[in-house]
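Exercise 7b. Backbone tokens:
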């Protein structure tokens, strides 16, 4: 099993949640209004007057074979609108209930 943490501009939220369903990824947890900025050239997402955008975060735990399809979709979405910012990170899951 793998955990996939997706940091996304709020504009991407509905599209990504819909894609999770189409990829048969049912379970996830999301956080709204997550603040930050990209590590190299990302535009700040602070929810302020100067930087009004905000991020969301989605965490899902998937079977190993589901990771590639999800990451491929996320890369394509990021390439379509790179200035919005979208990142995903994958971790191994050792155990759970």
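Sequence design result:
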């Amino acid at each position: 099993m793998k955990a996939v943490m997706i940091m996304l501009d709020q504009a991407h939220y509905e599209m990504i949640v819909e894609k999770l369903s189409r990829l048969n990824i049912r379970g996830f947890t999301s956080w709204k209004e997550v603040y930050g900025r990209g590590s190299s050239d990302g535009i700040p997402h602070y929810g302020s007057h100067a930087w009004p955008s905000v991020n969301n975060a989605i965490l899902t735990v998937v079977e190993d074979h589901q990771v590639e399809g999800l990451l491929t979709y996320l890369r394509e979405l990021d390439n379509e609108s790179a200035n919005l910012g979208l990142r995903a990170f994958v971790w191994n899951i050792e155990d759970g209930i």
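Instructor comment: The mean pLDDT is 93. The radius of gyration is 14 Å.
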